[in-house]
Known about the structure:
The structure is a single chain. The chain is an all-alpha fold. Helices cover 67% and strands 0% of the residues. The radius of gyration is 20 Å and the shape is flat.
Amino acid sequence: MLFLERLAEQKIQAAIERGELDNLPLSGKPLRLEPRGLVPEDLRLAYKLLKDAGFLPPEMELRKEIATLGNLLRAVHEGDDDERYRLARELNAKVLRLNLLMKRSFDREDRQVYAGKLRNKMLESK
């Protein structure tokens, strides 16, 4: 995958030098990127509903943070070992926390409380 990333970066850099990326419609505006690839296909609708209601479960927040840290870790230059080490430790801690969250099972009462909170949150956003 590293080869494709380098190739894409070279193509983008060449387009910038030729001025092909000047005056694009979203130039200077933040992009709203959705982590669709991080959400399993069968959970995407639920994720979108929760996100639109302004609520993400802790495991989804952690998945977003893990993806961001992974991207940062790949972007850090090889000579900056301290930063790479710090990011790797933070990434490992979040992965561990996510694994622990996923192993935790909700009993019936917890599910009912969760469903009630979710229902209330969605009704408030209308």
